[in-house]
Amino acid sequence: MRKRSISRQVNNVELFPFLSVLVCTIGTLILLIIVSASQILNSQSEVTIIAKNEDGKNQRKNPHYIECREDGIIIHPSQEFVAREDLTNSSSPLSQLILQVSTRKEQEYIIVAVRPDGFPIFNQVRSRLEQADIDIGFEPIDQGWKLKFNNE
User: Fold this and answer.
1) What angle do CA 48, 127, 115 make, to 5 degrees?
2) Are strands 62-69 and 72-76 parallel, antiparallel or unpaired?
3) How far from chain centre, in Å, is Cα 53?
4) How many angstroms separate the CA atoms of 124 and 127, rounded?
5) Which residues of 52-82 are buried (b: 16+ CB within 10 A; e: fewer)?
6) Residues 110, 134: contact at Cβ < 8 Å?
7) How far is it, in rounded angstroms, from Cα 117 to Cα 73?
8) Which residues of 92-126 are buried (b: 16+ CB within 10 A; e: fewer)?
9) Tens-digit pLDDT profile for the chain (152 aa)?
């Protein structure tokens, strides 16, 4: 009996087309990540403060907005600036706002946006608001964020 010879063929598999598709897919995903990350970073440069309670419902009181910075406060939306030295002055716009809100405590309150360098000023403002028995809310915000306010 004769022995059969089995021929073995070596199959060469070319992986270049697969690898090129894989590289293109990874490149596309990296591009999408870069674009979405840049949009997220750009959208964080502006923040909107909305007056809502913990349940996400609108407050029944009308808010007034104050921004605390290192050099003083800004009363929004009128953009009135009160310097650090004038915070306790009885004729300052802050004192006028406190007087206005204290006469309408059941309908109005104050929301304070606090910049990182504005916490010492916030402590002064908060003590004045607590002395006047005014409801307050506060929101820490980043130094570079632009503020928008919405009462919805």
Assistant:
1) 35
2) antiparallel
3) 17
4) 5
5) eeeeeeebebebbbbbbbeebbbbbeeeeeb
6) yes
7) 12
8) bbbbebbeebeeeeeebbbbbbbbeebeebbeebb
9) 566 666 677 777 777 788 888 899 999 999 999 998 887 776 656 666 766 666 666 667 888 889 999 889 988 888 888 888 888 888 888 888 888 988 888 888 888 889 989 899 999 889 988 888 888 888 888 887 887 776 54
User: For residues 142 and 139, what is the distance between their CA atoms, to the nearest angstrom?
Assistant: 10
- In angstroms, how far apart are the furthest CA atoms of the chain? 120
3-state secondary structure of 117: helix
77: preceding bond cis by omega (within 30 degrees)? yes
**Tokens encoding 47:** 């923040």
Residue type, 38: S
